[in-house]
User: Fold these one by one.
Assistant:
Number 1:
Amino acid sequence: MDNRIYIHIDMNSYFASVEQQANPFLRGKAIAITGKREDDQEQTRSIVTTASIEAKMLGVKTAMSTWEAKRLCPSLILYPGDPEKYADITRRFNAIFQEFTHKVDEFSVDESFLDVTEEAGDYLGATFIAQAIRTRLKEECGERITASIGIGPNKLMAKLIGESVKPNGLTVIYPHELLAFIDTCKLEDLCGIGPRMSERLRELGLFTFKQIRECDLKRLQKEFNSYGTWLYESAHGRENTTIHSSVQNSSFTSNHNFQTYEQPKSVGHSYTLPHDTHDPLEIKRYLLTLSDKVAWRLRRDGLLARRVKAFVRYGDFSGVEQQRLFQEPTADGYNLFQNAWMILKRLYNPEQAVRLVGISVSELSCGPGQSSLFKKEQKMSSVLSALDQIQYRYGEQGWTRAVLLNTKLKSRSSGFHFDHEL
Ligand SMILES: [Mg+2]
C-alpha cells in the first residue's frame, strides 16, 4: 500500500453559514435554511436543509420539518435557501483548494477531498497546508464560513477523522495511531455504514470495528457480498476501492480518479428507498425523480450525455447494472428515464426486493449543440429551459412532474447513506 495523505474538508452548517456571512442580522442567531421562498406559505411545510450552529445547539436538526423545528425553537428564523449563491461559494472554495493541489475531488456541495501527498511530503506538511487553507478560506469567503478538517491515509479515513471534531476542528491521525482511533468510533460514523447495515451488523453480534477486524472475511462476504470486503478493509483503516466499480454506488465516492475541476466524467444519482420494494411503479417513480435530477445537473453545466447506466441494489446488498447508448446526446430527464427504465425492466429480478435505485450518465459533451430538426424536440427544449429558470430561482423544489407529487427524496444532508450524487 502506498502511503498517501488526504485532507478532507467539510464546511460547517454550510448554507446557514453562507447566509450569516452575507447578512449580519442573522449572525449569532438560530436560523434554519429551508427549501422554499420566504413569501411562500408552503414554507411551513418544508424541511430544514441546514441549521445554523446556534440552532443545532437548541436541537434543530437537518431534515426536520420546519413545523417541528419551530415548535422546538420558536425564535428560529426560517430562511429560504439560495442554491445559486451556495454553488458560487462552493466554486470559490474549491478554487482555493486548487491553489494547494490539483487533485481536488468535490464530494458534495460542501465537502472536498484533497490528495496532498506530493505537495505535503509528510503529515506535518499536510497540517501546514490545512492551516494555510483555513486562512485563505477566511480571507476569501469570510470568517463565518468554517470547516472541519481531517487528515489521514485515504479518503474514507480522512472523512472519519475530520468528522470526529466538529465544528471548526483540525484533526490529524498518523498511520500508527489509526487503528486506535478507529476503535473510538461508532460503526455508523463511517461513511457507508447506514442504519440498515449497522442493524444487520448488530444482529450478527458485530458492534465495533475491532470485532469486524477479527471476523472471518468469508463470513462478511457471505453476508454482505462485496460490501463484506469493504467493511473488513475499512475496519483496518484501508480504503478498498474495488467495490466501487462492482456496483457503481458505493456509499463512498463514485469515481476514484480525481476528476478535473472543469468537467465531470459522469453525472449520476442514486437513492436508497425508504423501504425495500417489489413494486415496479414505485421503482419507476424514483427512477424518474433521479433522472430529472441528473438531467438538471447536465443542463446547469451545459452538458449532454450519450451513455446512460441504470442500476438497482437488492436488500441483500447485491446488485445489477447495465448501460446503453443514445443515438443523440441528451439532457432531457424524461428521455434519460425512458432509457434507464428500458434497461432495468429487463434487468432486475422482480422476485427480489429492491433497496436502492440509481442512474448515471457518461460520455458527456458540451451542449446544447445543434438544435434539433424536429419541432417536437425544439418545443421540449424550450420548456426545459423555462423549467430550469424556475429551478435556478427557487431550487430543486421549484417544479415537479404531476406523477411525482408523492415521490420525494429525503434530504441527503444528514447523510448520503440515503441519497447521493455520483
Ligand atoms: Mg458540512
Note: The two ends are 26 Å apart (CA to CA).
Number 2:
Amino acid sequence: MYNLFEKLKEVINKYDNFIIMGHKDPDLDCLGASLGLCEIIESFGKKAYIFLNNKNLQNYNSNINQAFERMQKDIICVTTHNYKKIINNTLLIVVDVHSSDRLEYPKLVDLVDTVVIDHHIKNKNYIKTAKFMYIDSNISSVSEIITYFAKYLNVNLDGVISTILLGGIEIDTNGFNLKTTNFTYEAASILMEMGADSILKQELLKESKSQYIKRASYIKNSFIVKKNIAMCVISKITNTIELAEIAEELLTFEDVEASFVIGKLDQNTVGVSARSLGVIDVSDIMKQLGGGGHTSNAATQIKNKTINEIKENIIKLL
Ligand SMILES: [Mn+2]
C-alpha cells in the first residue's frame, strides 16, 4: 500500500485539479473514500471535486444529506454540466470501481489522465488508459485504503468524513465480518481517533423498513441444498447490490456455509451472487458459469437463460 501512497503523493503534486469519481449508485464506501481523498488533496493546497451525475449528492440518500449538513467543510461537486470548466491539468481519480461501464460518467476517462484505486476483483472491462491502477481485492474497502493514506500523510480527517469512511468499511465488510483483517479494525480505530461518531454512523447505515421487509421476504423463500448451502431465487427484477446483500445475510444463519442468490437483472440477464465462509470455494462454481471471484466472494451474469435453468445448473455443479 505504501507504494501506492508514494505514487499518489507524486501525482497530487504534479496536477492542479482533481476530480474524484466512483461507481454508479454511490454507496458509503465510494462516497467516504471520495470525501477523504478530497480532504487529503486539499491539504496539499490543491483543488479537488467529486463528480456526481445527480445534480447534487443530497438527492441520493436522506441520511447522507444529514451528514453533509453537519459537515463543516465545503465539498465541491461537479456534474456533467460544469466539469469542462475544470479540465485543466486535471487528474481523474477513480475509486471503488475499475470497469469503465460502471463509472458514474465513463466519458471523462477519455478527456483527462486517470488513476484507479479499487478493491474489487479485477475484470476485463478495466480502464485500459489508466496511468496506474491499484486493485487489491483482499482489502475490505477503498475507505480502508484512504484511511491509511490519511494516516500516512498525517492528515486529520473531518469527523463527519471519518464517520462516512467508517460506515463504508462497515457496509463493505457486512459489519466487520467479510474480508476483515487486523488492518481493518485498525483503520476503524484510526477513524474513531479522528472523530468518527458512532451515533451518526448508525444514522447513515439505516435502511427503510420496506427495504428490510422486501429482503426478508426473499430470505423467507430461501432453501438449503447439500446440507449447508443456502439458495435464494428472486423472480422479480433485482440488482447486483441486492443479490449480494441477500447472499451475505444468508451466511449469518445457522449451518449455512455458502450461499447462492439468483435473480433477474433485466429481461435477458440473470445475475448470481455467491458467498462462502471460506471452506466452500464459490468462485469455482461461478467460473464454470462464466463469472469469477474469490473463494468466499464470487458472482456471474448469464444471458438468455432462465432463472430455473441456472438454479438447476448450480445444484448440479454443487
Ligand atoms: Mn467498496
Note: The pocket of manganese (II) ion is lined by residues 29, 96, 119, 141-142, 172 (CB under 6 Å).
